[in-house]
Protein: Galactose-1-phosphate uridylyltransferase
Organism: Corynebacterium pilosum
Amino acid sequence: MTFPIHSYREALSTMADGTIKQINPFSGTQVWTVPGRGNRPLSKPKHDAQPLGPEDFTHSCAFCSGNPLQTPPEKSRMVRGSDGDWHILRGLLPDEMEQADAAFRRVPNLFEIVSYDYWVENYQYEMASDTAFQMQRYISDERGRQHVIDIVRTRLNASGNGQGDEMTDEELLAKAPTYFAGGHDVIVSSRHYIDGATDDSQLASSGTMTPDEHYGFTAFTIDAMRDLYENNRYAPYVVVFQNWLSAAGASFDHLHKQLVAIDERGVQTDMEIQKLRTNPNMYNEWAVNYASYHNLVIAENDYAILIAGIGHRYPTLGLYSKSAVPEPWLQAPEEVRGMSDLLHAAHAATGPDIACNEEWHHKPVDLDMPMPWRINLKWRVSTLAGFEGGTKVYVNTISPFDLRDRVVSSMYKLRDEGKIESSIRIATECSAATNVLRYNPMLHLTQ
């Protein structure tokens, strides 16, 4: 399969009437921003907000901290230790969960995109011995056994045919491996609402965390990614994403990320790899350098850089790791913290009322070329319609320049208020250096 190579020099052009035409140099997506179409509120605050009671903070949905047995059996949790550091506890039994408050939990997705049976039937996948030990330990516990039975029955009954009610406990337990060795996990934050919330419009989002809390969230997600790779030799790629609010595809208005192990790299990744072989430095030249030349760099720190994306269907913030190490789980803690701080700042500047998708991209484990860890934060503020369907030209109501201005203005205010990491450099404070992404080994030879 071949794909057209789009010149980054043609990525942006402005017409006489102010229409900005964009071509994404990585995907070839064509986008227009038409003057006047973006002059409207982006968020849709809840108008029928209801007052909160004490139980709403812990029992509003299945992901809430008071409902740990409404999700499949927990694989691990991130807790704050007495030393103030983050620690991961793995394989707790139900009674043990009550002894350590979780800031974040990793649980299997009840409705998998790629199921455990998919791996077993297509690849003869076998559960790792330590996972099998934990499963047996869990179902040997009285509460754990009942929890698994209830979860399997709930999943089967969700199909609408009542199959779960017709099966014996032993038949239900036979399906337990799905919820211990599956490859679709959810990273759940403990808060449903912000601390001190008075009504149900005050949801806890990525941007309402502290920078340190967000680092825990990010590091815990990376640990889950590493674990999925290590436990499934047949998965060359683990997809990581976050859907915030229903307009962005979220099933719950409770903050969570998802990870899915897949047996392909995906069409977009394959397209980028072909272009990467033609130009190994393309993430510098076509993304970060180009953004710098057009004043589209929003913020940076020593370890990452945030730019206004070009040629996306929705307004998109592009975050790139400067690390020479492509794999997030192999990066130094300070490198992960740098990415997390800028991602947190991007979410905080976006605001909790804007639906958005957070999409992680990294080097597939079987790829022979480096590519940087990068994250796109897409604001779901418009709906694709007939024009886009008929032309494949997408109308993005906010230009990269307008996006930059909105986010930069918000970040200055947030930094002054101490709500984002103080070391973040914003707009003109950023370096004008080129080729700051060090994933390309050829750059090291010239330094």
Summary: The first helix runs from residue 56 to 59.
